[in-house]
Amino acid sequence: QADLAESGGDLVQPGGSLRLSCVVSGFSISDWGMNWARQAPGKGLEWILAMNSDGRVSYTAASVRGRFTFSRDTAKNTLYLQMNALQPEDTARYYCARGTGNAALRGPGTQVTVAS
């Protein structure tokens, strides 16, 4: 059974950093394109980063470019989202996903709140 579990969300002050993790089970992240998305209160889902099966980052949303980094550890079958220079507008629930759109398989998400 395929499963994704995000962790690492927290309350952080503006300008701070967080690293989110996504532990994947039931399939290999080396075989699939993987993504990070977020949903802010009252807004739709925003796809922010995409990684090809070969580990190359293929998409970075303008809203996070230069601040967020997508990486993975294939030995641990785990994805990471390093977030720096966080701003209040980054407040959202963050999800890792296999695929995108309506067919995407997502985890339950982890909450990131940026506030002073």
Beta-strand residue percentage: over 45%
Biggest β-sheet: count, sense, barrel? Answer: 7 strands, mixed
Model regions low in confidence, pLDDT < 50 over at least 5 residues: none
Q: What distance separates the N and C termini?
A: 40 Å
Helix content: under 10%
Give the overall form.
globular
DSSP strand count: 11
Radius of gyration from CA coordinates: 13 Å
Structural class: mainly beta
Helix count? Answer: 0
Would you tell me the overall average pLDDT? 96
N-to-C SSE string, H for helix and E for strand = EEEEEEEEEEE
Q: How is the topology of this model organized?
A:
Blueprint: E1 3-7, E2 11-12, E3 18-25, E4 34-39, E5 45-51, E6 57-60, E7 68-73, E8 78-83, E9 92-98, E10 105-106, E11 110-114
Parallel strand pairs: 2-11
Antiparallel strand pairs: 1-3, 3-8, 4-5, 4-9, 5-6, 7-8, 9-10, 9-11
